[in-house]
Design brief:
The chain has about 550 residues and is an alpha/beta fold. Helix content is about 55%, strand content about 10%. The protein has 20 helices and 12 strands. The strands form 4 sheets. A 4-stranded parallel beta sheet has the order 5-4-9-10, sandwiched between helices. A hairpin with a 2-residue loop joins β6 and β7. It is globular and about 85 Å long. The two termini are about 30 Å apart.
């Protein structure tokens, strides 16, 4: 329950809405004063009364119920005390009833959200720079589905351009089918790299000709292209499966080849297209942007041309409520231009397009850049995390069964969580030791907390959860209950801000609160109703943490 909103809706302040009042409500530093507090100083001028008088009048008029049991005034602050028993009963029952769906809603029912993420390049392996778009987009996909939306995951493949002519040229000169089949994506990439290192002017002409053959429908050229594409997709699918990533569409740039001309024609009809040094542009100077290049002087299309066609196709196909582009912040200008051009074309839905920008990922030694030759393949990062997790688990619990399976969940979880824990726009320095720490703000810590809760419940055996417990929650239990009750509102906030980091931070914070409860309060040693209540709280925490990690694509081992 959003207690701030609940309180705000019961306060009537002329000229202010519930949302604005809720934003002013805070958690006091001393919980003896109350669980929430509203400073009344900002209302003094509006209401023409002193803050002390305002707080006292509100306290006298505020209706107590089974949610807020008391409102009191102190030095211009309006303090609220939550009904602890009511909170416990409502939260524990709701989590038991909803289980794996706790935190979900149908707020998005009947609405479509398209999410463009990962967007792999054909014939190129994943490097660590692809991590953020892939796991960030995957988390948003799961979050929006969890809230009742129909999320459409789109992998906008990089499958168009002269690089494929270069690749065919390289294969024709140096390639061997059986060697490429054996070497997979890395063998394909080596051919491309060799071309760029050794290309003569003659080879460049050959490459352009091979690309022309692809575009004109030549069978041999297209068969080779489709072969390279199948090798790439087979390779990336293995990574997607490990990261719990799925897509509903793999329509890439090439799909829009015959859909760009209608866009160009429409731009001409609406007087938006002008010539500049032989190229066709949309002038955006009055909007504080450089021109959006639509066609080069040789008539070739560009990323913007294809993105315009893709946006129109997606709107016509899915009738989305919004369309998200999970792409690095370096493309901020590109998407501003594309969105503005669509707006100028009269597409009123251009306002529903959002660029979900994110920061860059590098290793502690700075390795990331493909241009500098310091590229780190994503599968190597994943494998190293899993192997390090296996070593740590083997040392901590050598008798544990299925150590390989546990290490897979822990290692993969560490990779995902490491990319999602911070605000998406921040650059990330990936540290194997930090992401695999059992004590830090990591998925490993949350997974270990889940394993601890599972162990408690396994030792307890069967117990029947009641609808009401005549138990007054202690301070540790109350803090944990408040966190659990907050989960649905936190998910809604994560969707609104496009921030899976909210979910990751919630998981760590809730795990910390559970561990404090676990240490300070006896669970299995308690007796009677208190024991049953604490077991119910343990089970509710495990359910909620599993749901949180599941939204991020992270599995939960029962033992660690």
């Amino acid at each position: 329950m959003d207690y701030k909103r609940y309180i705000a809706e019961k306060l009537k302040i002329e000229g202010m809405g519930a949302e604005e009042i809720a934003e002013a409500i805070a958690v006091p530093p001393d919980t003896q004063m109350g669980d929430y507090a509203l400073p009344c100083f900002k209302f003094a001028k509006l209401l023409r009364k002193s803050p002390v008088q305002i707080a006292e009048e509100f306290a006298a008029e505020f209706p107590a119920d089974n949610v807020v049991e008391e409102a009191s005034a102190l030095n211009g602050y309006l303090n609220f005390k939550i009904n602890r028993k009511g909170l416990a009963d409502e939260t524990l029952l709701r989590i038991k009833r909803e289980g794996g769906y706790y935190g979900s809603s149908n707020v998005g029912a009947g609405k479509v959200v398209c999410i463009d993420y990962s967007s792999v390049n054909i014939a190129k392996p994943f490097h660590i720079g692809h991590l953020s778009t892939t796991v960030l987009g995957g988390a948003l996909y799961r979050i929006f589905n969890f809230l009742g939306y129909h999320a459409v995951g789109i992998n906008h493949l990089g499958d168009y351009g002269t690089q494929f002519g270069k690749l065919i040229c390289a294969y024709k000169r140096w390639g061997n089918r059986s060697e490429v089949e054996r070497g997979g994506i890395h063998a394909v990439n080596e051919l491309y790299v060799r071309f760029n290192n050794e290309a003569s002017e003659e080879m460049q002409r050959e490459a352009r000709e091979y690309f022309r053959l692809i575009e004109s429908g030549d069978r041999e050229a297209n068969d080779l292209f489709e072969w390279f594409k199948s090798i790439t997709l087979s390779y990336v699918q293995k990574i997607y499966e490990r990261l719990q990533i799925r897509f509903d569409s793999y329509l890439g740039e090439r799909f829009y080849t015959d859909k760009m001309q209608p866009v160009v024609d429409e731009l001409k009809e609406k007087g938006l297209l002008t010539e500049s040094n032989g190229a066709q542009i949309v002038d955006l100077e009055q909007y504080g942007m450089p021109p959006c290049l639509i066609l080069r002087s040789d008539g070739a299309s560009l990323y913007a041309t294809r993105d315009l066609a893709a946006a129109i196709y997606r709107k016509n196909t899915y009738d989305f409520e919004r369309c998200l582009y999970v792409v690095a912040y370096q493309q901020n200008l590109h998407f501003k231009q594309v969105f503005k051009v669509l707006e100028l074309m009269g597409k009123e839905w251009a306002k529903d397009l959002y660029h979900i920008a994110y920061g860059m990922v590098s290793l502690e030694d700075g390795a990331m850049s493909t241009r500098k030759g310091k590229v780190v393949w994503l599968e190597d990062v994943i494998e190293r995390c899993v192997e390090k997790a296996f070593g740590i688990i083997s040392e901590k619990n050598p008798a544990l069964e299925n150590k390989r399976d546990v290490a897979e969940k822990v290692g993969i979880g560490a990779v995902i969580f490491g990319a999602l824990y911070n605000n998406k726009i921040k650059d990330i320095t990936f540290s194997y030791d930090k992401v695999l720490s059992f004590d830090g703000e990591t998925s490993v810590y949350v997974q270990y907390t889940c394993a601890r809760a599972s162990s408690v419940l396994a030792k307890a055996g069967d117990f029947k959860q009641k609808e009401h417990y005549d138990v007054e929650p202690c301070a540790q239990e109350f803090e944990l209950l408040k966190a659990l009750a907050d989960f649905p509102d936190m998910i809604a906030a994560a969707a609104k801000a496009y921030e899976p980091s909210f979910v990751a931070r919630f998981a760590v914070d809730t795990a910390q609160k559970f561990n404090k409860f676990y240490i300070d309060c006896k669970i299995l040693q308690a007796e009677g109703e208190l024991r049953e209540y604490r077991l119910a709280l343990t089970k509710a925490t495990l359910t909620t943490l599993k749901n949180a990690l599941g939204l991020l694509g992270i599995g939960v081992p029962e033992q660690m």
